[in-house]
UniProtKB/TrEMBL annotation:
<protein>
    <recommendedName>
        <fullName>3-oxoacyl-[acyl-carrier protein] reductase</fullName>
    </recommendedName>
</protein>
<dbReference type="InterPro" id="IPR050259">
    <property type="entry name" value="SDR"/>
</dbReference>
<comment type="similarity">
    <text>Belongs to the short-chain dehydrogenases/reductases (SDR) family.</text>
</comment>
<dbReference type="Pfam" id="PF13561">
    <property type="entry name" value="adh_short_C2"/>
</dbReference>
<keyword id="KW-0560">Oxidoreductase</keyword>
<dbReference type="GO" id="GO:0016491">
    <property type="term" value="F:oxidoreductase activity"/>
</dbReference>
<dbReference type="InterPro" id="IPR002347">
    <property type="entry name" value="SDR_fam"/>
</dbReference>
<dbReference type="InterPro" id="IPR036291">
    <property type="entry name" value="NAD(P)-bd_dom_sf"/>
</dbReference>
């Protein structure tokens, strides 16, 4: 069950935190993994970690907002892994300028980056892999989102939330278009993760029913299921992975 042997995955933003957990988990189930990160050294470190334990991985650093760079990297991944990408996990979502702050205090020059990386980044990556998926009749697209897409807060996350809300809408429609071709499209909305840990987040953690923050391993396990052959009848869904902090 959940055997991904013979499949190739591209995981964006996989040089650290949840993205690295996703890459490790997919590789552990047999997928060959193209490890992306904006910072080449981070992508290379995770790829080496995977290969050191017997997995197959290739570092493919690029900026998801650069369409040409995405397409070139996908071609490199196809050549390096020996097969086309049929599992695409768009995890990159934190721009260099996160755009955090109350909206009325933010200059318009800061509006674009969170939208570009989340929405246009996803579009660039989907565009680069979807034709191969449809032609082979099998594919998995997994979008990593956040509870900030659907729950408002006063923590200065309006731009981030807008980007995540936009990409969730894109994925809903994409799932309907691609379902007849054997390609599923699902979104995993994360709650507070360990990479955000600090004094304030530890206080928030105690309000989560499970009494802890999310870990990279939690995210990786959920993505393995969504990417698996066993999840062929699950598409167009947004699944909350948040320790029970928000129920649906």
């Amino acid at each position: 069950m959940f055997d991904l042997s013979g499949h190739a995955a591209l995981v964006t933003g996989a040089g650290q935190n949840a993205g690295a957990g996703i890459a490790r988990a997919l590789a552990a189930r047999g997928a060959a993994v193209a490890v992306n990160d904006l910072v080449a050294e981070r992508a290379e470190a995770v790829a080496k970690e995977i290969t050191a334990v017997g997995g197959t991985a290739l570092a493919v650093p690029f900026d998801v907002t650069d369409r040409d760079a995405v397409r070139e990297a996908v071609a490199r991944a196809r050549d390096g892994l020996g097969r086309s990408v049929d599992i695409m996990v768009h995890n990159a979502g934190i721009a260099a300028d996160f755009g955090q702050g109350h909206f009325r205090t933010l200059e318009p020059s800061r509006w674009r980056a969170p939208i570009e990386i989340n929405l246009f980044g996803a579009m660039n990556c989907v565009s680069a892999v979807v034709d191969d998926m449809c032609e082979t009749g099998w594919g998995r697209i997994v979008q990593i989102s956040s509870g900030a897409a659907r729950t408002g807060s006063d923590q200065g996350l309006s731009l981030y939330g807008a980007g995540k809300s936009g990409v969730e809408g894109f994925m809903r429609h994409l799932s309907q278009e691609l379902a007849p071709s054997g390609v599923t499209v699902n979104t995993l909305a994360l709650g507070l993760q360990t990479n955000a840990a600090g004094a304030a987040t530890e206080v928030f953690a105690q309000k989560i029913p499970t009494r802890r923050l999310g870990r990279p391993e939690d995210v990786g396990a959920a993505v393995v299921y969504l990417a698996s052959p066993e999840a062929s009848w699950l598409t167009g869904q947004i699944l909350n992975l948040n320790g029970g902090s928000v129920t649906s």
